[in-house]
Amino acid sequence: MQELDPSPVDETPSSSKESYFPPPSPPQRSSTLGLSGHNLAWWLLRLQRYSSYTLSAFLTLHITNTSLIPLFTRSLPASDTYLLLTRPYYQSPLLEPLLVGLPIATHVLSGLALRLQRRRKAVQRYGAETREERRKLAWPAVSGTSALGFAFVPLLAGHVFVNRLLPLWVEGGSSGVGLQYVAHGFAKHPIVAFGGYAVLVGVGSAHFVWGAAKWMGWAPSQGKRGEEGGGERAVRAKRRWYGINGVVALLAGLWMAGGLGVVGRGGKMGGWVGKGYDELYRRTPVVGAWM
């Protein structure tokens, strides 16, 4: 037998030092923009979410100018003064596309792209290769908030055309268009104006409030992580449903109180100003001949 020198048992042999510890993982690579680890749907959802923040700021300013201030002043000329003071901030050639046009386009297009992306994922998941198989596969369900958004798009387009694009097209600008122009339209065409405005405000308020509730995790279908179903969860969902619709009614009521109760009852304008407003409304495509 051969006698060997003792060695500490906790000493790692030199031959296995490199393999004993796992090699350090290489740093995760990212794109030139520093964006990694998320799929296309994640980014589309973020675009839709953050564009709504800018739109919320504009909406707050717009409702204040066109509804809340008239509600407190009870005077269209006085309210127009405040409208003209703030108009340069969101109707300038630089700020209007950034604060209004770009966020609206981003919000709508990202929502459509997100729906198409989910449809594509469903086709891949179920292996629908032929056209007939894809036709049989149902599209992703449209949520109530999304349905309100789709309904709001044509209403918003009509509102923007009559109050912004039509004066820009006919007169080259909207410097002469204010709350009295809107009141003149209500007085000349009350059924169309009151009905269209009420639908615009109702659908818009519901979409804004329910969308905000979803972003903040307050929708009835959104529960806490790990929360089990049961009577308590159903009661909480019902309370949220009533609470959100209560906020919708409050927002729509304030919006209509100033818009319909004050601006809508402002009456027609006389003289050359009223004639100019009549000419603007007559230049509306398709329906202008009857206005």
Walk me through this protein's architecture.
The chain has about 290 residues and is mainly α. The chain contains ten helices and no strands. The protein has helices at about 15-20, 40-75, 75-90, 95-125, 130-135, 145-170, 180-190, 190-215, 230-265, 270-280. It is globular, with a radius of gyration of 29 Å.
SSE blueprint and pairings:
Layout (H helix, E strand, L loop, with lengths): L16 H4 L19 H34 L2 H15 L4 H32 L4 H6 L7 H28 L7 H10 L1 H26 L15 H33 L7 H12 L9
Helix pairs in contact: 2-3, 2-4, 2-9, 6-8, 7-8, 8-9
Rg over C-alpha atoms, rounded to the nearest angstrom: 29 Å
DSSP helix fraction: 55-70%
Tell how many strands the DSSP assignment holds.
0
Distance between the termini: 117 Å
Stretches with pLDDT under 50, minimum 5 residues: 10-22, 28-34
- In terms of DSSP E residues, the strand content is under 5%
Mean pLDDT equals 84
Secondary-structure element string? HHHHHHHHHH
Structural class: mainly alpha
- Main beta-sheet annotation: none
Overall, the morphology is globular
Discrete helix count: 10
Short description:
The chain is an all-alpha fold and 291 residues long.
